[in-house]
């Protein structure tokens, strides 16, 4: 009896040592996202690509010691529950003992997740949320929030800058094609935290761009029917429907605009329109719907085309911006190798000085740990659905861009 | 703007009416609070999507299989989940909520949280009073009218309808008169869910199919049934049109408050409950069995 007990205890001790040894050989990274949704799928897919690439090449060099990456898949369920998201962060930190956090999508959820991550002083690289408050926290309370960095997208106010830059280009095309001095714009923004700054900025700045705002319509983020809104927009004679949509309403807008044969063209943020499945989901009716995007087979950076092609080959679909978890892990690798440690406090100053050429952007950070906005670097690209294909059309100086098209009148 | 409101309200009212008829039937006539009603609508939409888009069956065959399959499944659910607790209204409420959530999670597990599109049965649009109306929306209006007429015929011109109404009026007396009240209830569930399934097949093509698509219509249906009056099919139709028009007016009058259109419908429901609990055409609560 005593002998069996001793042998058992020894085996347990051996297992414990072996386990701790295994932990020491890996860097654990939690990928946080709504895994049942396309955003989470892209978070995970991008991370898998980075992990496999790095591990195949021997891992990350941490002060002379090669360490492999181990990913922890954390379903935040943030589409339906913010508490589920914070619980997921708490769980990966306390139970799975992860070293770093990457991901997040909904601003409301990421703001809550940020708090948990900062409580534990974990480096958290955001790959989905745009709300300015995330970066403002860093500026207002640096010691607490310095572990937060935004990898994608740019903050909401910078998204506006990109949107306006593209809007200016589309407006000019409308002036030429339709021979009108003042194109009419209908703002169609879902009612959500992330659209607040965008709507306010649009209402303020569009008249200055010699564009007439004919109205602002704000359906629910979960709405699936916008016939009344589109009917009103049609009646207002809008040339451009300026969209700010992240939910399923983006599909309804594309489909119902097509079904109604609307002559206005949709431009803005339409997260659903960034996905390959959008055309099918809109039943092939979303002709000329355009949206801000991150990835296409254009030479945004030297790594963009190889990444997009490899992603398509592996996952049989194009990446969405959430797949920039790939860049986030590559950024981690770079700073860990530069600092020679995984200690978050030592990595923060290295990351603050870094300029990283990634798959979707050339990233560097400001004092809020937000991306420095620049066309051709972090401002992203604009794409338009043309005959079932997502066609990139902006910025025009990037190689591979094609013409923007308007519905026939 | 007036013509936009008139046309948009009518078309959207037709969509709601199709969804509300079945809900009203089971909620009002059979006195079963079936919160899973719109979840069956979701199941039918997924079934239709799978058959039409994934397996390539034609519209008619896919629609028939989807409606028939979901109706049979609802009878099974009734026998296993609702019937054992039918005497306890609160238990039925909870059981049907649980059913709806199980269906939601099953669809989430099977199809993921992706938003799926179903091709329109009828392509194209027509301009009426300067307003563009897709043919699919007109089809919904026609189907809603046909369904309403069919339900009226079954309820008021057949022996089954007589049995359903008798059971609804007084379960115990109907039982004492020799009616098989369990079968009558089952038939009511089948008719009601088949209407939800028809709605899933006809209405889903104008929306998107996703695991949470049952929630928003459920809230609207509750508002319509309360407004129209419990058990009144005529009330459901008129309630659906009123809600359709109220939503259209909200969007046209307060564009920046378009997201409030659901809340306005609920506000109407609360006001009706406070001022006229029996609704526009319903039976007063005091007179119920």
Describe the structure.
The complex is a heterodimer of chains A (409) and B (289). Chain A is α/β, with parallel strands linked by helices. Chain A has helices at residues 2-24, 38-56, 82-94, 107-119, 133-140, 142-145, 156-178, 196-205, 227-235, 249-259, 278-281, 304-315, 325-339, 344-353, and strands at 26-33, 60-62, 65-75, 100-103, 123-127, 148-152, 184-189, 212-217, 240-245, 265-270, 290-293, 356-357, 362-363, 381-386, 389-394. In chain A, the strands form four sheets. In chain A, strands 2-3-1-4-5-6 form a six-stranded mixed beta sheet, sandwiched between helices. In chain A, strands 8-7-9-10 form a four-stranded parallel beta sheet, with helices on both faces. Chain A has a three-stranded antiparallel beta sheet with strand order 11-14-15, with helices on one face. With 289 residues, chain B is an all-alpha fold. Helix content of chain B is 71%, strand content 3%. Chain B has helices spanning 2-29, 37-54, 59-82, 89-111, 135-157, 159-169, 171-176, 181-203, 215-228, 233-253, 261-275; strands spanning 125-128, 131-134. A two-stranded antiparallel ribbon of chain B has the order 1-2. In chain B, a hairpin with a 2-residue loop joins strand 1 (125-128) and strand 2 (131-134). Chain B starts with a helix and ends in a 14-residue tail after the last helix. At the A-B interface, strand 8, helix 9 and helix 10 of A face helix 1, strand 2 and helix 10 of B.
């Amino acid at each position: 009896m005593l002998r069996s007990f001793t042998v058992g205890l020894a085996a347990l001790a051996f297992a414990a040592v072996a386990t701790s040894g295994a932990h020491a050989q890996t860097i654990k990274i939690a990928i946080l996202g709504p895994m049942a949704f396309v955003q989470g799928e892209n978070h995970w897919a991008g991370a898998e690509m980075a992990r496999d690439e790095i591990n195949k090449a021997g891992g990350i060099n941490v002060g002379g010691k090669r360490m492999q990456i181990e990913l922890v898949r954390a379903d935040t369920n943030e589409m339906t529950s913010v508490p589920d998201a914070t619980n997921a962060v708490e769980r990966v930190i306390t139970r799975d003992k992860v070293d770093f956090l990457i991901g997040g999508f909904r601003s409301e959820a990421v703001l809550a997740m940020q708090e948990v991550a900062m409580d534990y002083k974990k480096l958290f690289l955001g790959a989905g949320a745009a709300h300015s408050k995330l970066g403002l926290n860093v500026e207002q309370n640096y010691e607490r929030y310095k572990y937060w960095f935004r990898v994608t997208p740019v903050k909401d106010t910078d998204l506006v800058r990109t949107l306006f830059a593209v809007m200016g280009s589309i407006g000019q095309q409308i002036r030429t094609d339709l021979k009108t001095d003042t194109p009419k714009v209908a703002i169609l923004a879902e009612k959500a935290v992330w659209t607040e700054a965008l709507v306010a900025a649009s209402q303020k700045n569009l008249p200055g761009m010699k564009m007439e705002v004919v109205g602002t319509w704000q359906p629910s983020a979960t709405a699936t029917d916008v016939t009344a809104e589109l009917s009103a927009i049609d009646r207002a004679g809008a040339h451009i429907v300026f969209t700010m949509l992240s939910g399923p309403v983006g599909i309804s807008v594309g489909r119902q605009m097509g079904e109604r044969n609307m002559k206005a063209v949709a431009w803005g943020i339409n997260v659903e329109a960034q996905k390959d499945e959008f055309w099918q989901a809109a039943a092939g009716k979303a002709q000329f719907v355009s949206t801000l995007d991150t990835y296409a087979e254009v030479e945004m950076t030297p790594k963009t085309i190889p990444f997009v092609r490899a992603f398509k080959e592996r996952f049989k679909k194009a990446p969405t911006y959430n797949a920039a978890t790939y860049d986030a892990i590559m950024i981690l690798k770079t700073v860990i190798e530069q600092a020679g440690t995984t200690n978050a406090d030592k990595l923060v100053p290295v990351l603050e000085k870094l300029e990283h050429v990634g798959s979707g952007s050339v990233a560097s950070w400001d004092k809020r740990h937000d991306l420095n906005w620049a066309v051709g670097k972090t401002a992203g690209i604009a794409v338009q659905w043309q005959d079932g294909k997502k066609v990139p059309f902006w910025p025009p100086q990037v190689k591979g861009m094609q013409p923007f098209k308007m519905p026939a009148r | 703007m007036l013509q936009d409101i008139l046309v948009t309200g009518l078309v959207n009212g037709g969509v709601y009416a199709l969804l509300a008829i079945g809900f009203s039937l089971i909620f009002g006539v059979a006195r079963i609070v079936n919160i899973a009603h719109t979840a069956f609508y979701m199941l039918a939409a997924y079934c239709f999507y799978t058959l039409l888009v994934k397996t390539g069956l034609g519209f008619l065959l896919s629609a028939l299989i989807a409606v028939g399959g979901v109706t049979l499944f609802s009878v099974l659910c009734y026998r296993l989940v609702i019937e054992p607790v039918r005497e306890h209204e609160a238990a039925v409420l909870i059981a049907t909520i649980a059913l709806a959530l199980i269906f939601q999670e099953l669809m989430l597990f099977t199809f993921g949280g992706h938003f799926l599109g179903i091709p329109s049965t009828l392509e194209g649009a027509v301009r009426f009073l300067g307003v563009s109306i897709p043919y699919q929306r007109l089809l919904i209006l026609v189907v809603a009218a046909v369904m309403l007429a069919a339900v009226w015929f079954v309820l008021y011109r057949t022996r089954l309808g007589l049995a359903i109404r008798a059971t609804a009026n007084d379960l115990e007396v109907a039982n004492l008169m020799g009616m098989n009240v369990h079968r009558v209830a089952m038939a009511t569930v089948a008719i009601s869910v088949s209407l939800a399934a028809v709605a899933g097949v006809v209405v889903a093509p104008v929306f998107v199919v996703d695991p949470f698509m049952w929630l928003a219509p459920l809230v609207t249906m509750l508002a319509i049934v309360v407004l129209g009056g419990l058990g009144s099919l005529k009330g459901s139709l008129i309630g659906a049109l009123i809600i359709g028009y109220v939503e259209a007016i909200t969007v046209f009058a307060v564009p920046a408050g378009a997201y409030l259109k659901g809340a306005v419908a609920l506000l109407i429901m609360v006001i009706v409950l406070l001022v006229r609990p029996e609704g526009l055409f319903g039976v007063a609560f005091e007179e119920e069995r």
